[in-house]
Amino acid sequence: MRAWLYLIAAGVAGAIVTTPALLVFFLLGGTFEDALFAALATLMLVSGLMVVTMRDIIRCGLAMIVCFLALAGIYVLAGATLVAAAQVLVYVGAISVLVLFAIMLTQSKAGPSALVFQTQRAPATVAAIVLAVVIGVAVTATDWHELATRVRIGANEVARVLFDQYVLPFEVVGVLLLAAVIGGVFIAKREPDQT
Amino acid sequence: MGLADSLDAYLVLSGILFAIGTFGFLARRNAISMLMSIELMLNAVNLSIVAFGSFVAALRADGSVIALMVMAVAAAEATVGLAIVIAIYRNRKTPLVDEYDAMRQ
Question: In order of start, what are the domains of chain B with their CATH numbers?
Fold first, then answer.
């Protein structure tokens, strides 16, 4: 019985993701890449909404992985393949595992999710919608002098820029990461005298 | 149509994702949920940087480089943030931020 429920849920999820793509492809006359963009954008936004609204926080973490994967697909569509690879390595591989471990370390059985949201959720909703509308209006009203089509940026080109004019920031980021790792270990370490 | 070929589509998408992250940060009670919302907001910003990089001729590879730097800094932030949450959890036995009221009393 539960297997049928999961199958139906998977079917509904697939329909939600593919409907905008089919709309774009057949009704609006977009190319295959446009349909792919619509599908990935829908997947990303739906899983992003699931991250902030679901009650079970483990499922929030899993939805966050889906959101990051869809975003990696959008990076590929935008032409930044190296950033997409780094997105999968860093976010899907590392940060998601870190977040899932932190969730498992901090969940208590006592009151798992009696109240998921703060009391200010209504103002927060209004603020988020206003923010989205303002950003959308500002973005569409501005002339960015952009190219008519996107350019594909290869790893070679990124490496030349990264190790030529961005060498100092690159080294500073390396030192920052080292400091963050040492600091994280120090903060999360259990003190010997307590507990 | 040209949805994948317009900068506005990417930027509006990133704006919506940023707004979702803002809502999560303001509305959730769990500290780790708030950190996940921050990750969503950082990813939205990264998406707009990548989009600028591939659509503005003067930026090209610089956009990708800056996005990679943002990713590294976000990883550092996640490490320290989650370590702080775990350290607080060890003292207060709860991950809910509205019960962290030691400095209010």
Answer: 7-97 (1.10.287.3510)
